[in-house]
Amino acid sequence: MLALVCCTVSAQDIILKKNADEIQAKVLKVTETEIEYKKWENLDGPIYTIPANEIFIIKYQNGSKDIISANSARTRSDIAGNFPKYQGEIAAAYGLGVGRVSEFINTDRILFETVHGIRINPYLFTGLGLGFDYFYESIDMEDYYGNAIGSYDGAGVLSSFINLKGYYPATKKLAVYFSLDLGAAFGVAGWAEGTEFHTSVGPGINWGNRKGSPRGDFSIRFQHMGTGTNAILFRIGFGF
Questions:
Q1: Which of 22-26, 28-32, 177-181 has the lowest mean pLDDT?
Q2: Using alpha carbons only, what angle is made at residue 71 by residues 65 and 76, rounded to the nearest 5 degrees?
Q3: Of 8, 131, 161, 205, which residue is least crowded by CB atoms under 10 Å?
Q4: Helices (H) and strands (E) in the chain, counts
Q5: Which branch of life, at top level (predicted)?
Q6: Three-class SS of residue 191?
Q7: Are 51 and 45 a contacting pair, CB within 8 Å?
Q8: What are the two backbone dihedrals, phi and then psi, of residue 74, each rounded to the nearest 5 degrees?
């Protein structure tokens, strides 16, 4: 009788959960997100499923074992996230002036901007942004004969734009992306006047937990703003 009991016990699969509970079962299917099984005491009964992230190890009746790794234990919601959802960011940048105007005056700038929109899925974002570029170099204006006609303590430009980002999630907490801004720039202070086409484009990296916590962000972009007032931007900020 003892030998018969031992043989019966050894013929079942054992699912050991992370909370130390054991399930005596017949395992039917193992995927990255869940395990399907039947209860050993009722093999003719229904099929049960359990999330893989609740399982520590599966011991099979033939003596083999499956240790469920952290990667395979991610649920579908961990992988896909809850999309679409709101996404915002606040950033500052330093711009090195390039282009025709920068050959005559210093067009380096400090930029502050914010972007708000919808993260459509893990790979695509679209939103609206508002930025302010401060050109901190003072300029003395002269006429054709070299006579002073005015002096400006820098300039200010307000920009409004549509932002598009394409993401590649390298890991659960790290993604690289490519960003594109399209909009208009308005001279609002100093020597900056009029309205010009505004665009900014370049790669970036985003890191941190996607589920509500602030995320770090760094990118290098080429900014076009009017005739000859272009810049290479070194931009850092955080998203939420």
A1: 28-32
A2: 110
A3: 8
A4: 2, 14
A5: Bacteria
A6: coil
A7: no
A8: -70, 135
What type of residue is 229?
Answer: T
Q: Which residue has the tokens 């210093």?
A: 106
Please report where in the chains the tokens 């995320």 appear, as a residue: 215
Strand order in the sheet with 48-51: 48-51, 34-39, 22-30, 13-17, 55-59, 65-67
Kind plus residue range of the DSSP H or E element containing 26: strand 22-30
Handedness of CA 24, 66, 2, 4 (dihedral sign): positive
- Listing DSSP states for 8-64 in one string gives HHHTSEEEEETTS-EEEEEEEEE-SSEEEEEEGGGTTS--EEEEGGGEEEEE-TTS-
Ordered domains of the chain (ranges, CATH): 13-78 (2.30.30), 81-239 (2.40.160.20)
**Residue 121 contacts residue 83 (beta carbons within 8 Å):** yes
Least confident of 27-31, 173-177, 219-223, 226-230: 226-230
3-state SS assignment for residue 223: strand
